[in-house]
Amino acid sequence: MQLNITFRQFGSSDALKEYAKEKVERVNKYLDRAGEAHVVLSLERHLHHAEITIHSGAWVLRGREKSEDMYASIDLAMDKIEAQLRKYKEKIKNHHGRDRVHHRQGLVNQLKVRHKVFELPEELMDEAAEAPAAQPAPSAPAAEQSSTRIVRTSEITVRPMPVDEAVMQMNLMNQDFYVFQHATTHEVCVVYRRKEDGQYGLIATHGTTPTGG
């Protein structure tokens, strides 16, 4: 497995590199093949953040955690990944035979969306908390125009797949939502986890131009 480790806001550490490498390679007992892994270790507001991303065929696995100790953050992030791997181990192995087909489909009319995580200024957070229930909170575009701080930006490749595989990919990435192209209707959709009951929801954009046959 090819492993890349990035340090942000603090100096590189050979001991942390070796520890992260040892932990990430534990996924080999679940996967027939893991192509590459990227570990980002960062220090933010005295908290140690670990983000681990592993590519295995068509699937992306991700775990993010933070704590007061970087070694603990790495452990917690990998625990999240391993929990999903145990849940989907057989499905991942059975799916690898179709990886090449999905890869070819993904290269045709590939669509990407940008996902930004931003932090509201304290005064806006206070206003939102004190506002009456009927008063809407500041919208994302309005918030971006103020003095917000972008915490993280990522680019998501929108791949064609059935809804059940989109749910699986969302869980493997330990996210609450996932953007994909419906394999049958060709609509760009968002599958998400409902906080109120733990069920899943599906949002579809109508009027999407079909791509492919």
List keywords for this structure.
33% helix; four-stranded mixed sheet; alpha+beta; 213 residues
Write up this protein.
- By secondary structure, the chain is an alpha+beta fold.
- It is 33% helix and 34% strand.
- The chain contains 6 helices and 10 strands.
- The protein has helices at residues 14-24, 70-95, 99-107, 122-130, 140-145, 163-172, and strands at 2-8, 36-44, 47-56, 59-67, 111-119, 149-158, 160-161, 177-182, 188-193, 200-204.
- Strands 1-2-3-4 form a 4-stranded mixed β-sheet. Strands 7-8-9-10 form a 4-stranded mixed β-sheet. A two-stranded antiparallel ribbon has the order 5-6.
- The protein is globular and about 50 Å long.
- The relative contact order is 0.11.
- Mean pLDDT is 80; it is low at 99-108.
Q: What pattern of helices and strands is seen along the backbone? A: EHEEEHHEHHEEHEEE
The computed structural class is alpha+beta
> Beta fraction of the residues?
25-35%
> How confident is the prediction overall: mean pLDDT?
80
| Total beta strands | 10
Largest sheet: 4 strands, mixed
Helix share, percent: 25-40%
Measured on Cα atoms, how large is the radius of gyration?
Answer: 19 Å
Order of neighbouring strands in the sheet with most strands = 1-2-3-4
Q: Runs with pLDDT <50, length 5+?
A: 99-108
- Give the overall silhouette: globular
The tally of helices reads: 6
- End-to-end separation: 35 Å
